Amino acid sequence: MEYTIIIQKEPESRWYVGQCAELPEAISQGETLEELMDNMKEAIELVLECHKEEMRKQYKNEKVFYRKITVNV
Fold it and tell me: Whole-structure pTM over 0.85, yes or no?
């Protein structure tokens, strides 16, 4: 799945800061764009894992499974 990363370069620290548009709670930073993108992948994975855990708790008495879909806009 593709995600949109909103990137800013902090003028004082000169670090790159990113936030995922689709998962606003996924935020990270890096000294280079490459480092930022690696860190953003990890942040997105962590957020998605947290969402799965929340869903499992909410539907603990039901069988829950996940499927991926692609939506082209």
Answer: no
pLDDT tens for 7-63 read: 999 999 999 999 999 999 999 999 999 999 999 999 999 999 988 878 777 777 666
Strand order in the sheet with 27-30: 5-9, 16-20, 27-30
Closest CA to 40 of 25, 55, 20: 20
Separation between Cα atoms, residue 48 and residue 20, nearest integer Å: 12
d(C-alpha 73, C-alpha 16), whole Å? 28
Q: Which domains does the chain have, with CATH numbers?
A: 5-58 (3.30.160)
Secondary structure class of 41 (helix, strand, coil) = helix
Q: At 51, which helix (H) or strand (E)?
A: helix 33-58
